[in-house]
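User: Hey, quick favor. My workstation is busy. Could you predict this chain's structure for me?
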Amino acid sequence: METFMIEYGIGYQGTVLHVAEGDTALAICGNAIASYSLKGGLNKPLIWGPRFGISASAFNPLNNWIAFAEKGLHPSVLVYECGKQQLRTQLAGIAEVEVSALAFSKDGFRLLTVSCEPDFKLCLWDLQEREPSKLAEGSSDWLVEFASFNPASSEQFCISGSGNVSVWTFEKNFHRTSFLCRDLFARPYQPHCHSWSEDGQRVYIGCLKGEVLMFDLAFTPALEAVEDDKSERSFRELVEDDLRVLISGNLSSPESSWGDGWQVLRVSQTMERVASICTGELHVVIAEAGGRVCWLSLPSAKSKGNSKEDKSDTKADGADLEGCTTGSDFSVEGDIDNNDDDGATVSKGNCQSSVDFRTVENSAKAASTVVYSVNLDVMEVTNLMYDTDQTQLVVGAASGCIVVIRINKDLLVSTLSGQSGTAVTENFAAIQWRSAYHYGPIHGFATLADGKFVLSSGHDGTVRVWEADRGKELSRHCFKSAQLCIDSHEGTSTAVTGSANGSLCMFKVDSMGRSAIVSQNKLHTSSIDKVSFDKNSNHVIAACKADGRLYFLKCGSSDLDELELIGFTTLDDIILSIAWDLPTAQGKDDAYLLVSLSRGEIVKVKVPSCRASSANLFFDNKWLNCMSFRTQVPLTSISVGKYYLEKEKVERKVVWGMGQDKKLQQYRIPENLQGWSGSSGNPLHSHFNMPGHAKPGAALVLHLKTSTLITGAEDGALQIRDVVLDPLRQPQKVVDVQLYDGYLGGITAIVVAEERLFIGGANGVIFSAEAPAAGLKLASAAPAGKPRISIIPERTKHDSISDGDISSQLSMLEKYQRTSGTRSAVALQEYRSEVKKRLQKIKQEFHDLVDKNEKAPDLEKLTLGELIVDMDLECELRSQGQKRVDGVREQVIKDNYKKDIIAERIKHECWQDVTEAGKHVWPFVQGSEVPNFPSHKKFISYTRAAHVTKALRIIEMQENDYTKELKLIVSSNMDNSLGIATAPGSPHSMGSDIVPDGDLTGRSKEDAPAEKEQAIEPSAQQTSIEGATQKVEEAVPSRRSSIITAHDAAGGKSVIEPETGSNKGATDGSSSLHTPEEDAEESEALTAELLEKGPIESVLYNAFDLTTSKRKRTQRFLLFRQLHLIREVFNTKFKNFEENKESIIEKIEEMYLRILELQKKLGLKDDFILPQLENHDDYESAFTVKDEEVHAPKPGVKSPSMDTMDRKGYDCSKPEETF
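Assistant: No problem, here it is.
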C-alpha cells in the first residue's frame, strides 16, 4: 500500500468542539480528529480513527491530550498526545455497544468513560502512570449525554442527560474505596446539560424546556428532614407553592432558595431547549437549540441579604430576551405533577396563569437576568465553549456551522459587578467569524478551469464553488430543494445541476470563481437524479431514477446559455447510473449513452441530434437503437474505459461497475449484435470480479490517463486500484483508507481535479488529498489553446435564487406540448365551428317546418310522428332495434339464470348445509382474531361411520381376548381327553379344587395303575379332539352374533350386552369343553362398555398393527372422530367466550354511564374508548356471491376454468382423504 495524505478537510459534523491554542479548535471530522481554524484557514486532520468512526471525544489543554472512542461493538478509548500525534494508551472493556461521553479532569490525569445502553457503565481511570488503572466502576439507569469533572477536585464529576442529573464522588482512604452517587432530583424540570462554577461549589443546569437551575453542593439536608421522610418536599412542594403564589400575583423574593440547594435562575417563555451551557466570571452563557445565545447574570450574596429592598423595587430588573426591554424572564405553563416517594403521580390540576406577565414582572426581582443575547441564525446548536481567557466564545451547530463570538470582557465584567440587572447599552459580544460548510450529504462534484475550481452540490440545497488549492469558498447559491447531481463543461465554464423538485439549473463561473445562474427550467414533476454533459456535442442528459425517464437536451448557443428539450424516452426500470460511451477509432459523430438498470442490465442508447417528430417529444426505443446485455448483479455506478491490443491491433472497450453485492466487476462491451442479448438473454461473464467494500456504494471514478479506479462506499473507506485497463493483469489495490464514519452513510461523491482528489461524505465533510505516487500524478502539459474566460452577463448576476415557485410552473415538456397542441386545437376548433354551423342550419329548417305546420289548418296539420320524412325507414329501423333488444334481453336472462343456478348451488353446498357456521372473535384492543371450526352436514355421515367403526373395533378387540381364552380352554380339554395330567396351579388347570396326587380323573388310587395300563385307542382319541374343536367353533360365532345383535338393538349405538347363559357351553357335564365363568363374562362386558364410553385413543391401532388396508381405513375413521370431538369441544368454548364478550361489553357500558354521571357532577370531561362488537359479527349476511365470481360457460362448450372449479370448489360429496 502506498502512503495517502489528506491535505485538508471542509465540513463540520456538529460534534463537541474543544478550544485549543492559536485560534484553533479540535473536533471530529469524518473518521479523524481535525484541527479547525477559527479564522477561516485550512482544517487539517490530525489523528485518524482505527475503525468505522468516532463516537465521543475529550480534550485536556494542560497536557495537550485528547481521548476519543471508536464506534462498533466493544469499543476502545484511545488517548493521544496532540503535539506529537502519538498514542499514549488504549483503554478496553468500557462498553458493550458505544461510548456516549468522555471527560478529563482539570489536571488531565483522570479520565471518565460513560457508555450507553444496555450497560450504562461509568469507569474512572487513572492516567498518571504509563499503564492506566481503573479506579472505580459504576452504572446509571439512564443515558448520559454530558459529563464533566469538578474544576476544583478530580475526585468529583457530574453527569446529565435524559432528564436526569447526578454527582459522583470518589474517595480512597488507605485500602478502602468508595464510589458514591448523589442524584439531584429536579422534577418537574428536565435537566439536559450542565456546567460547574469556577470554585466547584455549584452546578448550573440547562433544561429541555429552557429553564436554568442552580444547585449548591455545599447544602446538606437536615437529619430530621430525612427521618420525617420530607427530603423531597424542599424542592417539589416548595416549587408548587411558589408557582401558586406566582399565579396569584403575590410573588415573594426569588432569592429565597427552594430548598435542598436548588434555585431557579431562569424560566423561559419560548420553552426552547438549552442545548449547551458554560460559566464565566459572574455569569452563565446558554445556547438554545434555535441558535440564540444568552448571557445570564448570577445572584450575589448582597442581593440575597437585601430581599426586602428588592421587593419594593418595581423598576426594570433585567434585560429581556434581546437586551433592549426590561422584565423578568419567568413563564408558567402546563400541569404541575407532585411525584411521591413511591413513584405515584398526583395531579394538582391545570395551573395555567391568567395573570398578566407584566404585573408579575413588576412584582418581584428575578434570581437571574438576561444581560445580553445574540441570535446566530443557525439551527440545532449542540455545544459552546469559552477559550482560556474568556474573550472568545465558540459555538457549534449540527447544521455544519461554527460561529466565533468576540467578547469585550472588561465591559461585561464591569456591567455584572457594578450594575447587575441593568440593560446593556453597548454591544460587548459580536460575531467575528462564521464557517461555510455543507449540511448533509454531498451529492456530486464537478471541476472547472482545469481543476482550479471545484463545484459541489449538497442535500442542504446549496451549490458552492471552492478554490481547490486552499479550500476556500468563493461563491454559493442556495435553493429550497436538494441538489442531487452536478456536471460541468470545461470549454464554456458552465455547470448544470439537477434538483429534487425536477428543475435544471445552469451556472456560469468566471475566472475569479464567481458564479451566476443563467437559466433555470423545470424539467420533470419528480426529482432529477442524474445529469451529464457530453463534452463533444454539447448535449445534456438528465435521468429520473424513479420512473426510468431519460431527457435529451441540447444547448441552443455556443455559450450554453439556454437548454432546449429535444425529446425523452422511458426505460421500464429504475435507473441506477449513466455513463457516456467512448467514441470509436473511426470517430463517428453519433453519441451513445450507457444506462445501468436495477434489474441487472446495461442499456446502450443513441443520443438523438434532432427533435422528436411526435407531438409529445417521445422517442421510441427502436428509433434510439436501444441494445442491452445482462450483468450478473445490478451495478450502482458505472464508468467506461478502453485499451488497445497491439498484437491483434484491436481496440476494446470495457465497463467498470460497483455491484450491489459490494464487488467490483469489469465487463467487456460486446462488439457484435449477438453479444447484446437483451433483457431475456443470459448474463455476461465478468472479466474481473474482485472483492470491494464492506458495504454497498455508488461513488466510482475511472481515470483513463492513469488507468486508475477510485471507489468509495457506505463503509467510509476510500480504495484506489491501478492497472485497471490491462486485460492480462489483475488490478492491485494501492490505497485503502477509512476516511468517514461507516455508520452514517460513508462516501457519496468523488472527483479528480488535476493532481488532487476530492471526496465527499454523507456527513457533509469534504476531504482534499494529493494523488498517490502510482495513481493520479500526471505530467503537466501545455494547454492546446488559449483558455477561454467566461464572462457572466450583468442580467444574470445574483448570489442566490429561490425555487419556491418552480414547483408550480409548467415543465419544459408541458410547455412544448401546449405550444404544439395550439395548432391542432385551432384546426379542431375550425372544424367544430363548421359542423356546428351545419347543425344550426338543419335545426333552423326543422323549426321553420314546425312553425308552418302550426299555422296550417287543423285538417292539414301533421303529428310529430308524421313529420318524419321516411315512414318505411322508421319502421325498419324500429324493428331492427327491437330485435336486437330482444336478443340481448334473452341472452342476459340466460346468463343470469345460469349464474343464479350456480350461485344457489354454491350457497346450498357451502353455506346452507353448514351446521356450524364459521365465525371469528375479535379482541378489544390488540391481538389477532380467533376463528372457530365450521361444520358441514356431510360430517354427520362421517360421525355415524366413525361410531360403527368404533363398535366394530371394540368387537374385534373383544374377539381377540375371547379367542385367546378359548385357546387356553381347548388346550386344557385336549390334555384331559388324552389323559395328560395337569399340574395343580398350572395354566391348564380349570377348577379351583386341588386334585390329590395320582387321582387325576377323580378315581381312587387303586384304579389308577389299572387305568394307566390300558392303552388308549387312536380312534377314540381322534373323536375327542374333533368334538372339542367343533364346540369351540360354535362358541365363537355365537358370541360375535350376540354382540352384533346387541349393537343393532341399541339403534346404532355401540353398546355391548353381556352374553346369556346359552353361550356358556354344555352344562350337563358330558362334554369335556369348559367355558369361562360368569364373573369373567361380566368383567368382559364391563370392559366393552368402558371402551365405548372412553376416549378414542384406547381403541386406536398401534403403528405396527397397520398392516392391512382394512385396518388403515378403520384407523382413518377413528382419527376423524377424534378430530371432530376436539373441534366440538373448541366450538363450545368459543360460543361461551363469545357470550362472555357480549356480557363484558354490557358491563363496561353500564360502568361508562356511571362514570359520565360522576364527571358531570364534578365538572370534568374526558373521552373513553368503548369496546364494541365488530361489524363482522353479522354472520348471516357475511356470505355473498358476486357476479364476477361465477363463470357460466357457453352451451356446448366446456370451460377449463369451470372444470377446475367443479373438481376443486363444488365437489363436496366426496369426503377428504386426509385428516
